[in-house]
């Protein structure tokens, strides 16, 4: 299996994890369930449903961490999305988790 373009240029090693998360789009408080496959302090790789429409920027809420990360998509490949964290926010009040 080939790595996404630019993967060899990563500055930080990503730790393998298996965390449930939600992509919060803000459009009518919608969310897309996903799984974080690996992660480091600046970004993560997400596994999503192949037919999910993930926006270029979104809030990634990780319930086990209690953190909502502001994210920007850096690459996409089939059912995987690489994101960069640009900040954090408190859990959105409307989210049930």
Automatic annotation (TrEMBL):
It comes from Pseudaminobacter salicylatoxidans. One of its GO terms (molecular function) is cyclic-di-GMP binding. This is PilZ domain-containing protein. Pfam families: PilZ. Residues 14-89 form the PilZ domain. It comes from the Bacteria.
């Amino acid at each position: 299996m080939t790595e996404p373009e630019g993967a060899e240029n990563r500055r930080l090693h990503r730790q393998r994890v298996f965390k449930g998360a939600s992509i919060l789009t803000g459009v009518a408080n919608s969310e897309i369930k996903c799984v974080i496959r690996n992660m480091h302090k600046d970004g993560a790789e997400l596994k999503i449903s192949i037919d999910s429409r993930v926006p270029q920027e979104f809030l990634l809420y990780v319930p086990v961490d209690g953190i909502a990360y502001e994210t920007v998509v850096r690459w996409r490949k089939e059912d995987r999305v690489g994101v960069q964290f640009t900040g954090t926010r408190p859990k959105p009040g409307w989210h049930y988790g």
